[in-house]
Structures are given as structure tokens and as C-alpha cells.
Amino acid sequence: MVWYDFRSFWNRSDFYPNHEADLLRMVLLHTRGGVYIDTDVIFTRSLPAGSRCSTDFIGIEAGGPSRATAERVAPSHGGGVRLTGADVVCNAVMAFEPGAAFLAAAIDEFYDRYTPFPPKLSFPELLALGVWGAMGPSLLTRAALERPESLCVVERERLYPISPLEAASAFGAWHEARDRSRWDTIASRSLTVHYWNQLTKHLSIACGSLMHRLLDQHCVVCTPLLCTTAR
To answer: Angle between the 210-217 and 176-188 helix axes, to the nearest 10 degrees?
Structure first.
């Protein structure tokens, strides 16, 4: 991997801090190794240790095999799955050893194919156009499809059991038919939950909601949790 001076081009976007964050997390992991976690990620149990999927892994955000398929492909806790062209990985939770070849290739592609966001568009508009994650999840997805042997891909339910489109509903009043299966999945299978703060930061937490239950059980600050009562 060639080391680049990115300062000359990554600020050509209205949301350049997001692209900066996309890049820096890869550079830091490539240089030092370790685990990267977004601040809007909640741990429900410890990450697996002692396997390939504890040192060089990334998780599926959208798409991915069904639970039954994932269990056939990788029945062990923390096992990897096969990534397909219909899947998208996310960069909110990642772990790599220093010098990982996958990250070196992804950093090179960041430089070679850097694309500023279209100007004057909001985050929801960029998300709707499918370009928000161009230099983050989309880039890493292409790299993972091109180099499947260089990392472990974790099934969606392990790291991202709530999708971006489902995030707002997790803050609303508990709905048994909708939320029970999500809660059971989180309780039995998930290692982390990403609650997509960019989409949910203006929402209040309904008392008894999925998010209320999640924070109440896995609080790291351990102060009384404020919630709103549905009327």
C-alpha cells in the first residue's frame, strides 16, 4: 500500500468529516490493529475470541444469508458467512490485525475512487440516493467481494440486527408482533446493536420500547434512563 496525503482532496464534500472518519478508522486499524466501534453501537455480549473471526472481521449490514443458511455455512459462534453481490457490509464494528492486506487494498481504493457527495443534499436525501456510504460500506463491500479470503464476514444478525430502515421503530412503543422476534434475536444471537444515531438522534425513547429494554439491560453509564409514556 502506498501512503497518500489525503488532505488535498477529502474536503471536497459537504460531509467531508464523514469521509475523513471512513478513512481514519481504516488507517488506524491498518497501522495499529484492534477493534473499531462507532459510538452508537451497544454491546450485548463480548466479541468472540480465539478464532479467525475475532481478529479480521467485518459484518453484513443489509442482505445476507438467512439464519438457517448462516448456521449451515458457519455453525460456530462468531463464524463467517459467504458474501454475495446482494449484501452490504458496514464499518461501524470492525477488527483487524496490524498490516491487514484487506485494509491496505481498501485504503488504496479510497484514494483511487474518491467521490465527493453531491452538494447541498441532506443526509436522508443522500441515503435515499444510495450514495451515503460510497466511501465507507459500499467501498468495503466491493473490497470484500474481490478479496473474500482476506477477512471474515459476520452475518447480519450478529452485529446489525436492526437495519437503518427499522431503527426508528425500535424507539417507538413496543409492538409485540413486530418487536418480539427482533428482541429474541438480539437476546440469543447478537453481539452488538447499531442504533443508527444519524437517523434516530431526534427521537425520544418510548417506555417499554425495544430500545428502552436494550439500554436498560446493557447500560454502560448506569444512570436512570429517561423515556416517554405513550398517550
So the answer is: 30
The DSSP secondary-structure symbol of 148 reads G
Q: Are residues 212 and 229 in the same domain?
A: yes
Q: What pLDDT shows up at residue 63? A: 74
For the record, the C-alpha cell of 160 comes out as 446489525
Question: Residue 154 forms beta bridges with which residues?
Answer: 59, 80
Tell me, yes or no, whether 153 and 205 share the same domain: no
Instruction: Report if residue 225 sits inside a domain.
Output: yes
Is 50 within the bounds of a domain? yes
219 falls within a domain: yes
135-176 per-position pLDDT tens digit: 889 999 999 999 888 899 999 999 999 988 899 999 999 999
- Beta bridge mates, 80: 154
Cβ atoms of residues 61 and 95 within 8 Å: no
At 205, list the grid cell: 425513547
Mean pLDDT value across the chain: 83
